[in-house]
Amino acid sequence: xxxxxxxxxxxxxxxxxxxxxxxxxxxxxxxxxxxxxxxxxxxxxxxxxxxxxxxxxxxxxxxxxxxxxxxxxxxxxxxxxxxxxxxxxxxxxxxxxxxxxxxxxxxxxxxxxxxxxxxxxxxxxxxxxxxxxxxxxxxxxxxxxxxxxxxxxxxxxxxxxxxxxxxxxxxxxxxxxxxxxxxxxxxxxxxxxxxxxxxxxxxxxxxxxxxxxxxxxxxxxxxxxxxxxxxxxxxxxxxxxxxxxxxxxxxxxxxxxxxxxxx
Amino acid sequence: xxxxxxxxxxxxxxxxxxxxxxxxxxxxxxxxxxxxxxxxxxxxxxxxxxxxxxxxxxxxxxxxxxxxxxxxxxxxxxxxxxxxxxxxxxxxxxxxxxxxxxxxxxxxxxxxxxxxxxxxxxxxxxxxxxxxxxxxxxxxxxxxxxxxxxxxxxxxxxxxxxxxxxxxxxxxxxxxxxxxxxxxxxxxxxxxxxxxxxxxxxxxxxxxxxxxxxxxxxxxxxxxxxxxxxxxxxxxxxxxxxxxxxxxxxxxxxxxxxxxxxx
Lengths: 263, 263
Description:
By secondary structure, the first copy, chain A, is of the alpha+beta class. Chain A has seven helices and eleven strands.
């Protein structure tokens, strides 16, 4: 188990499926894309798919399964969405009911699974280009902020855009924009560069989620759309049932981050 | 009316709405994006939205309206989808029932409107870069071919990918790929370059739709995903009702083609 960093996505999913790994997935299967999970009953699925279509930067869809399907096709050929995620959050009417290690007993024929891209994918590309990723350097969770930017609503789903912040040296901002632009299916290019107040953020030292990070002299705060956005929209909509991954406990796919790049 | 080429999208939609223009829209409102139309009852909408999500190259969604909505928000702030398209095709159970100039009498509260990108947008960018667009030079409709590439199915929707073909001088292929890559929301980069047999096309002189065009010495056939693909999938699925634009009679939006470019 100490060598889990060396395992393939398939081997890691296998451990998770057997209940032998229930911790966060950051740093595992480097090079491979990880995905956020949202599961909703069929009656909410069109609205949520439409919400993602209208808000592709915070809600970049990697794969959507047919109602009742629990095997992925695109992200992996052998994954079972009911067992292959280390921890799940179960929400009823928008309230967290529990955190579980598999959802086999909760599975129903009308459940629709959405898998969304995650910024781990472009952070790896930033590091390769020697662009600092401060929260990784400092061993923290990325700082996240609720902005005053409204998402485009769709059916019952609406809410503010949540963003992540990474401090970037001013002479590397152009390169950071270029690199993350290639990864449109994992949040893509920044949505804002510079003054936090412009997008309704009052204090960079007090993130709404995650941890504050150091901003050094000569660095500019750069903001990317964040996968917490659809979670906030789903919680606000209070569907009868919603299952997500527990924060940081992602689905590990067989797709290389590089395969997600536009070109 | 002879100066229709000089009118704005809003002015042209106004003429169309009054029944004063029922002809094809190619060459109108140059610089502005035109869109394909598909309208389906709500019960088919999730499957079709999923089909588009899984097949973004042939089915690039520009805007999807809520059930019953007939006013666009993103593509225009004053358009009425029931009247602002020069001609509509009405299909029942996959069969063409009629061609009409507006669909006010057919409108129902559960109809969902999908507007999809069209290659007019990137052809304009090609011409600006001095890349020949043969069917425009020859005053023809673009040649379209049914390939043996299967789209990813979604619910009741499935079918082959249909492609357009443009002959490109071999020293301009790289540039043609680069330019069309920028327009991911209007079919984007080519899906195939070269030998037609590789994607199941037998005879370039006999397109399945549109007109054959001249391929000159030193030119290579280049293939892009085509918006006829979703129409074929919809026809095969035989929904109770489906309304589309009549071929060539598109929705003219207020969005500049340039606004659709990735960067």
